[in-house]
Fold this protein.
Amino acid sequence: MIRTTRLVTIPSHIKQEEELHPEATGTFSSLMQDLTLALRIIAWEVRRAGLNDILGITDNTNYNGDIVRKLDDYSNSVIIRAMDHGGNLCVMASEESDGLISIPEKYVKGKYVLVFDPLDGSTNIDVNITIGTIFSIYQRIDPDSKSDGTLDDILQPGHKQVAAGYVLYGSSTTLVYTSGHGTHVFTYDPTIGEFIMTFENLEIPKRGNLYSCNEGNFFKWNNQRIRDYVNYLKTPSEDGVRPYNLRYIATSVADIHRTIYYGGIYLYPEDTSSPKGKIRLVYEANPLAMIIEQAGGKAISGTQRLMDIVPEHIHQRVPFFVGSKDDVTDLEIFLRNGKL
Ligand code: MG
Ligand code: MG
């Protein structure tokens, strides 16, 4: 069921958006064309996982100390191979690559920057549970430069994102995308090889009745006020609004996707084993925050708007709280006052 009257593919949507900006040169749509090619190839490979020898782990761990699965590696290299020669990018960064990913010398350096988590939820790959790809695009700091992009081009605050999105490889393959004009959903139709718009201007409910977190870490959470807030959500209220229900897939992009549709809150606080939380600011939290804000929700790190943080490190982690506006505001009040 397509919940929009216009029949639009992702390339035609981007083209229409570019027409709103007379200064646009078409490089952005060419960049997105290369990126959606990579995403379609990854989707195809994910669909066949188990049939070919791509499940399981490699002998490597990445910068973050996670075990690298074969599909992590595969997806990382597909995105790099699709993106490094189009002349649209000056540098990239990925969860699966330690430092900057440079554009090879022989190719033109463009004015955009791409950061991505090639496969989110990779511990769920081998058990056939939803996984995803997260990406974010910035303009380089000096748009006229023709040289290699630098670390500063990567370490821009989230509010500078030009576009952000994620693909979920779930019961269908879904691309959720924003370029700052609302959040739109495209569903992949494998028979015609296109992402077709299925929701235009997705809106997260103002309040939900679901919360999503790794509650197994409850006693490891550093902040008593987070525990108090979660206990509050679980305490029945006379009006029947509480208790909230718990939902947790442990693929953050999938948990956030459900949160956008149904409302509620997703929490990944700091704890005694992850003193900065677990979510990565640059290529996970910021793109998800932009998608959520563009859908009318809210994304914070506890003390501030998430997209205002200036990153210091490609792989920096951040406490991450996102969801319905009223739910995240309740949490902010708890964090400030210890109660509502
Ligand atoms: Mg991830
Ligand atoms: Mg990953």
User: Anything to note?
Assistant: Residues 95, 117, 120, 284 surround magnesium ion (ligand 1) (CB under 6 Å). The first strand starts at residue 57 and ends at 61. The domain at 210-337 is CATH 3.40.190.80 (D-Maltodextrin-Binding Protein; domain 2).
